[in-house]
Design brief:
529 residues, globular
Length: 529
């Protein structure tokens, strides 16, 4: 994400006559929705972070949650029943109260599987979730709607008190509650969901005033915002770029963009610029790029030895050095170390480049079918195409396996529908600060329902044991044991961890990067002129 600032701070009385201060930002992908329960990717989450407030927010240094809209969040004796108290006198931007009912209506709507929202699965831990899910056919079409419209485990006790009963104990429940899927929703928003998806009615410091989808988005400061975490500038304007980093860096150099990072070809020049060096911020990221296999189709990838061979044939160090743009680190674990509690390096035994061991593992697996090409599927992203071409080249050079890239503009929907045959790219950054969040999506209940065609009862039993731990520290340790099971069965291959970095102009101060996504935290940025 990149930012440009026009004008001055409201505190600069000499130049206030120049008009409102606008923060200009860019988005690298087209967004389909701004409905909180359906917004699961980097860009809408970044926008919604200033349009909505959740029960908790996360400390940018420690990643720990702290109460924000919540007055208190308390667990019962066994971490099954949770009581949430909401701060009084808060409203949405249309004047409706932000109360217990506002959260209940939001959670129930998202948990209702008939609505087909992205964040639906987050509510699977709440009692009554299963009754809200529809029956579907082999094409994932609904043939019978869910029997219930509300979570039985979600009770409005009074105007400001919400009681949540989970289907089983979960010590980490409070850490989840800052994620967009748990934001409150105004009744007016539910009355016209389609309109709300384009012009949300939030409770945060900025309200969306215009969205020309695919082109630009504008949000203006909400004058009646009552809480503390809001910047001094007056509006935010996002431009939707199609060329990503390359376009933003060109604009940064011309003075039109205030925050950006160079494409690979210009990284060294930027590092050697003494002025830019003074306006640079970095932090280890929390995102993991990894490789999955279509275990739901027949192929050599169903043999662990083959997957080991592929992993050891990938020269992570060399690829990162040549193409990493300074924003990647070779990965050897499934939970990013330092990114969340429980992250440790070195859990992947076969993530070191070892051509001889790779060849031996391939031989043990029975080799590769002669005349066949290994398909490597990914989305339509220029930088990722470059990286996965390098991965394919490394595999072909070491193992002699020819490959072809399948660049799919419908990558996410194809992957969800188990539509690939071979290898495919995956990326994950955590929605909340707990190692469980990197692991739980492997718990599909069956190989049939897994996007990797992989299921392990031992793994899922360990996750259940961790969920039921009496304390969060105990849970973190047990989730680490679950990662050990994942590492042994090796269904996916860690490739790189993210390393977040950006340059910014002399007009900005206090540029802090989000510990999860690596994006600048818009609420924290200060304008110095």
């Amino acid at each position: 994400m990149a930012l440009t600032v026009a004008g001055c701070t409201p505190n600069d009385t000499e130049s206030q006559s120049d008009g409102p201060v606008t923060l200009e930002t860019w988005i690298s992908q087209d967004m389909e929705t701004l409905f909180p329960g359906d917004a699961g990717s980097y860009d809408p989450i970044s926008v919604l972070d200033v349009v909505y407030d959740g029960l908790v927010r996360y400390d940018p240094e420690t990643t720990e949650p702290y109460n924000y809209v919540a007055e208190s969040i308390e667990a019962g004796e066994d971490n099954t029943v949770w009581t949430i108290k909401i701060k009084p006198d808060l409203t949405f931007q249309n004047g409706e109260p932000v109360d217990a009912e506002a959260f209940a209506r939001s959670w129930n709507y998202t948990a209702d599987g008939d609505n087909g929202l992205y964040s639906n699965y987050f509510f699977s831990i709440v009692e009554g979730y299963e009754e809200m899910q529809p029956e579907t056919d082999e094409n994932d079409e609904i043939v019978k709607e869910g029997a219930a419209d509300e979570l039985s485990g979600l009770q409005v006790i009074d105007d400001l008190t919400l009681e949540v009963t989970l289907s089983s104990p979960f010590a980490g429940f409070a850490t989840m509650l800052g994620y967009t899927g748990f934001f409150p929703i105004a009744q007016e928003c539910l009355d016209d969901v389609e309109a709300c998806a384009k012009t949300p009615i939030g409770n945060g410091p900025f309200q969306v005033t215009d969205w020309q989808q695919g082109q630009e988005l504008t949000a203006e400061k909400w004058a009646d915002y009552p809480l503390e975490e809001t910047p001094e500038y007056d509006s935010i304007h996002w431009t939707e770029y199609s060329a990503g980093e390359t376009a933003s860096w060109a604009d940064f150099k011309s003075g039109d963009i205030d925050i950006s990072f160079p494409p690979t070809a210009e990284v060294e020049a930027a590092k050697n610029d003494p002025e830019l060096a003074e306006r640079y911020v970095e932090r280890p990221g929390s995102a993991l790029t990894y490789i999955g296999f279509s275990g739901y189709t027949d192929g050599p990838w169903n043999d662990k030895e083959f997957r080991k061979a592929i992993s050891m044939a990938i020269d992570r160090e060399g690829i990162v050095a040549s193409l990493g743009s300074g924003q990647a680190i070779p990965a050897d674990s499934w939970v990013v170390p330092g990114g969340v509690p429980g992250g440790e390096a070195g859990t992947c035994e076969w993530c070191t480049f070892d051509p001889e061991a790779a060849k031996a593992a391939l031989e043990k697996a029975g080799g590769w079918p002669e005349g066949e090409k290994l398909q490597i599927s990914l989305g339509d992203d220029e930088a990722e195409v470059e990286r996965f071409t390098a991965i394919g080249n490394s595999i072909e050079e070491v193992l002699g396996i020819p490959y072809e890239l399948n660049v799919d503009p419908d990558y996410f929907s194809t992957r969800a529908a188990q539509g690939y045959d071979g290898m495919f790219r995956n990326n994950w950054f955590p929605d909340y600060p707990l190692n469980e969040n990197y692991l739980s999506f492997y718990a599909s209940g069956s190989a049939k329902d897994s996007q990797f065609g992989w299921y392990s009862k031992e793994f899922e039993d360990k996750l259940d044991e961790a969920d039921a731990a009496p304390t969060l520290d105990d849970a973190v340790a047990l989730y680490q044991e679950a990662e050990g099971i994942l590492a042994d069965e090796f269904p996916t291959i860690p490739f790189t961890w993210s390393f977040s970095a950006t340059y910014y102009s002399e007009r900005l101060d206090n540029v802090i990067l989000n510990p999860f996504s690596g994006a600048p935290i818009l609420r924290e940025i200060e304008i110095t002129e």
